[in-house]
Amino acid sequence: MDEQSSEPAGRSNPFTVVPIEITISVGKARPLIRDLLKLTRDSVLPLDRRVEDPVELYVGDRLIARGELEEMEGEQAGQLAVRLTEVCDLSGEL
Fold first, then answer.
1. Does some domain include residue 42?
2. What is the pLDDT along the chain (94 residues), one digit of tens a residue?
3. pTM of the full predicted structure?
4. Residue 57: is it exposed, middle or buried by C-beta count within 10 angstroms (0-12/13-18/19+)?
5. How many separate domains does the chain show?
6. Interior CA angle at 63 toward 59 and 68, to 5°?
């Protein structure tokens, strides 16, 4: 049940239960085409960011938040996650 109403969560707005895909951008690379053509297995492609720099979260091409990469612990040890440090105002235009 939704704490703010007596209706079950999602009943008043069916779109609240639709999954969406979020893309996490950790950086960009701008290699020359000649360097791109030389890439092989185990090649390293430097990005424009450092490990400790914030990552950006997008839905489509819209920035929705920023955060920091973390490694999960416990049963999900080794899996990457994002701790949000800033959330954009999403109440605007649709």
1. no
2. 444 444 555 468 898 899 999 999 999 999 999 999 999 999 999 999 998 999 999 999 999 999 999 999 999 999 999 999 999 998 865 4
3. 0.71
4. buried
5. 1
6. 100
